[in-house]
Amino acid sequence: MLILGKHTTGVANPLKNKIPFAAMACVVYVSVSPFLASAQSSMSDVPASVSVQSGDASLTTPPSIGAQLGAQEQKAGTNSKATELFAPVTKANTPKIYTRPISSGPTEMDLRQLWNELKVNNPQLSSLRESYLSAKATVPQINAPANPQVGLVWSGMPVNSPFALGGANAPSQQYPGGISSNNAISVAQPFQFPGKKSLAADIADTNAEALLASSESTYLQLGAQLSTLYYSALSSQKQLAVLRESVIRLEMIKNVAKARYTNNAAAYVEYLNAQVAQSAAQADQFNLERQLNVALHNINTLVGRHSREKLVLRGDVRRAMSGVPTLIELEDYAENSHPSLKSSALQLDAARKGVDLAKKAYLPDFQVIGSSYTPRGPFSANNGAMFYQFELDLIIPLYFFTKERYGIEQAQRNQAAAEAGNLSNRQQIVLAVNTAYAAYEQAKNQAQFLKDRQVPQADAAYKVGLTQYSNNGQGFNDLLTAQTQLRNLEIALAQSEANLLQAQAVLMVSAGKEPF
Can you give the pLDDT at residue 163? Predict the structure, then answer.
């Protein structure tokens, strides 16, 4: 098959005017040169905006597992749950833990929107948020006054009249003067020494804020995991584009080999080898599509969505490769603003306040009791004089202050442990920032080296090999090797760019910042 076109190449053609067979090979080369130009232009000018769509049939639909299993069931006459497992998400087959409605179409999100979804809907973060609110609810309980005690007392009940409430003081043959009963109603109110309750409430509030800071640190860790999955999905999408371009290039090589075989200028095995290489590239596409689906399912689960909901990821890779602050700036930011350091600092503050509270255990507590007495029963008419009584009790620490002394020692040990933990946490955060920055620099240098040197060199080698082979050269194996190297380096470039973005996100999270 010959398609006439304009001959454009940057390589000199020494066989252009030699023999008709060379002209035939040149015409065959011309037939594929528009495709080559299109492929090379599409590979050199990679668009900045990358999108990943899980519902794209050309991208994520290898042979349907559910359909194959269903056909096998019908053929074998069995009934399993394969159809149910691979069915689309509907209200009927959605687990009850997912209370949000199932979206009717694909949801389009960028990294910032995914982080917002993570913050609101992730079950682990929801649990930490509720734990914080529960801890905050204990503060007013601790600071509230103790409950009063109301007492009702009656005495002087004669024999055979155990509940003679109204006649407890009536004269009898045995007791002509009656029985003196001092029946009473009393109210007791305990008080702690001033400052104890407020200090205990302050400690509880500080611990609650430390729990909130710890939940923010967990949010950053989950966000780093989400960013890694996000950029991995974008990388899989870019690698799929590379493999599609590789399939096109191999199709060109296969057509050239077929034309040369038709003209008895090449062996048929060259055509077969090109066909095998093309099939291998298509098989690699299936593996990448599976990895992409797994990444999308993990992202859905992480942000609190059903794993089988449709998701479209929007991302500008070049814009994401923004400038990163210096190592000194990141270390300063981490030491001042990292949530984990905030949590440990608040825990240290609470431990110091705990020492002060333990020392207040030497101070006595109080109890005030007010009583009202009457000579008659509490449920009868009062025909006698009433009198009142006021009592002030001191609750003092006894037994040689043993409990108090060991309470102070326990609080001091807790303070020492909190100080050591705070110092260790600070060292670990700074070390994590240094390690993440070194990984970021390495990923940046590797991506830059691939982009500036290795990929252009492999592209030039492929062009030269294709030109020589199309012009009746003998370098089929060299051409196939050059094409394979170009494909591998382009895939490596996509992976290195994803590694760079992942390292950048991890670096920001290590310093306590969101990566956008």
Answer: 54
Average pLDDT, the chain: 77
d(CA 25, CA 261): 11
- DSSP string covering 66-134: HHHHHHHHHHHT---SHHHHTSPP-STTS-TT--SPPPSSPEEE-HHHHHHHHHHH-HHHHHHHHHHHH
Lowest mean pLDDT among 51-60, 101-110, 225-234, 459-468: 51-60
CB 462 within 8 A of CB 249: yes
CA distance 228 to 231: 5
Average pLDDT over residues 64-84: 42
Q: Both tokens of residue 218? A: 């967990």
Kindly report, residue by residue over 10-46, the tens digit of the pLDDT: 434 433 333 333 333 333 333 333 333 343 443 444 3
Is 443 within 8 Å of 496 (Cβ atoms)?
yes
Strands annotated E in 142-227: 149-153, 183-191
Which helix (H) or strand (E) covers residue 365, if one does?
strand 365-374
Q: How confident is the model at residue 270, as a pLDDT?
A: 87
In our burial notation (b when 16+ CB lie closer than 10 A, e otherwise), range 339-365 reads bbbbbbbbbbbbbbbbbebbebbeeeb
The answer to whether the CB of 144 falls within 8 A of the CB of 201 is no
Interval 91-106: pLDDT, tens? 454 444 444 444 545 6
Residues 6 or more apart in contact with residue 47 via CB below 8 angstroms = none
Q: pLDDT confidence of 261, banded at 50, 70, 90?
A: confident
Alpha helices in 303-374 (DSSP H): 317-320, 327-337, 339-359
Tokens standing for residue 401: 């202050």
Which residue would you say has higher pLDDT here, 78 or 274? 274
CA neighbor of 315 nearest in space, from 226, 444, 433, 438: 226
Query: Measured between alpha carbons, how far is 130 from 122 in angstroms, rounded to an integer?
Result: 12
Residue 250 pLDDT > 80, yes or no? yes
CA 515/CA 223 separation, integer angstroms: 9
Q: How far apart are CA 109 and CA 59, in angstroms?
A: 18
Burial of 275 (0-12, 13-18, 19+ CB in 10 A): middle
Q: Is 49 helix (H, G, I), strand (E, B) or coil?
A: strand
The separation between CA 6 and the C-alpha centre of its own chain, rounded to angstroms, equals 54
Q: Please tell me the pTM assigned to this model.
A: 0.69
CB 316 within 8 A of CB 393: no
Please give the pLDDT value at position 472.
75
Total length of the chain:
516
Token output for 79: 């009934």
